[in-house]
Amino acid sequence: MDMTRRGLLEIALVGGGAAMAGSAAGPAQGGGDWDFLVGRWNVRHRKLRERLVGSSDWMEFDGSSENWPILGGAANVEDNVFYTPGETYRGVALRAFDPATQTWAIWWLDSRATDRLDVPVRGRFEDGVGTFVAEDHWKGAPVIVRFRWSDIAPQSAKWEQAFSTDGGATWEVNWVMHFTRA
């Protein structure tokens, strides 16, 4: 089902469903949504070399990730190392749960630009899939950014990033990460 830009943002920013049930942390702390990600991971990346230009030229590289809960499970930190061709860099995801809206906000900090946090994507887990969206810009053009967590299992998980320039009618997936337990 295609969703309008407004519909996607309303789901992410206002709410509209319960957080995924889970641990004893309870709904006020996200119901254990990120428990699957705690620990160390090996990550295989597949990333478009150029975004929003109709490219199908992907680069693949390895990385690693470590995640731990903070604030009693109401937030978590994910520290990533990216071994891209010709460059190694780090990135940090900070996630925090808002009990009022039953949504998570995810901020990104990149070691190549430590003077700014990216616009937070917001959303929740439903039926084992986490979807998080935000309005942002890519090279000066407005985009909707979508993060999606899926294929979640005890030893693996998948994350993907996609951009939409038409209000969410179509999406370009531009980065896929396959996590396997280290």
Helical region count?
Answer: 1
What would you give as the CATH superfamily?
Calycin beta-barrel core domain
- Indicate the percent of residues in helices: under 10%
Could you say which structural class the secondary elements and strand pairing correspond to?
Answer: mainly beta
CATH class: Mainly Beta
Number of strands: 10
Question: What is the overall pLDDT average?
Answer: 87
What would you report as the Rg, rounded to the nearest angstrom?
16 Å
Reported by name, the CATH topology is: Lipocalin
What about the largest sheet? 10 strands, antiparallel, barrel
Taken from the alpha-carbon principal axes, the silhouette is globular
First-to-last CA distance: 36 Å
The run of helices and strands is: HEEEEEEEEEE
Pick out the low-confidence regions.
1-28
- Total domain modules: 1
Describe, in plain words, how this protein is organized in 3D.
By secondary structure, the protein is mainly beta. The chain has one domain (about 5-180): Beta Barrel (Lipocalin), CATH 2.40.128.20. The chain has one helix and ten strands. The longest helix has 9 residues, at about 5-15. Residues about 1-30 have low confidence and may be disordered.
